[in-house]
Sequence to fold (303 residues):
Amino acid sequence: MNSPLFDLLNLTFLDIVKWMFVVGLVIYAVFAVIIVRQVKVMSEAVDSDANSLFQIMSWLHLLMAVLLVAFAIVIL
Amino acid sequence: MPDIYTAPSKKKGQAETYVEEMKDSKFWWKEMIDEVLKNVGETPRSVAMGAYNVRPGTHFVTQQEDEEVVLLLRAHPIINIPWIILAILMFIFPIILLNTGMFSAVPGKFIFMGRITWYLMIIMFVLEKILYWYYSVFIVTNERLVDIDFYNLMYRMVTYANLNHIEEPASVTGGFIRSLFQYGNVWVTTASEKPTIEALNVPYPDKVVDIISRLSEELEKRREQGK
Fold:
């Protein structure tokens, strides 16, 4: 933690943890996008009354993941 | 020239009339399905939380014009209990962990974000499990069997077996829970590349096998009649 690099970038340990958190959440958001896509594929494979419900749930999940990335950047 | 033989006039029986009517009917498959379900004692219905659906009126991706879904099967809902229990345990895990005082030195905002992230991951886990259960289906139509299995979010396997190519459907129900809740496995041997097509943990496997056998027989009769 006394590295000149950290002094140069004015980084603390918690800043590193924060950005690791953000990177992890971005990867998680990518998975949420994949879930949305796969729900669409699944809905096309089998016609069902619950298809629209699952699509809404997957989009809400993606929205939460994206919001969480924003929260992580702002709050942490 | 005298007649050597004159065939006696024969009154058509009910079975012959039915077969001829079936051959000529535009919606022959509907009548065939009606007959099979009537003989089995089934009516269009949905039980076991959508795990056993008779003539649900739904469609699937490669369904043909003269094809109708007779049975739409999913695994019995009871097999979801293990992951539901796990999700509940995952939900209360942060509460227990925080009460131990292990994270007392961690800033509150990190704990807050950690908890929110954990709960979002639980939502993803639950959503994933529900999707696997709901969309992994075994479909019986008047022409073929369709087995759609989702192994994970990015891997799906769809297996088809024509009812004309199947042999020896079999059902297995074993164990206390399976006997109590009347679910089991159905295996159908086929003459295609994939030798066996299976429907695991489906409700009323005996009825499923019965319906598959009868549909196969009807198709065989129809083929022998030249249709």
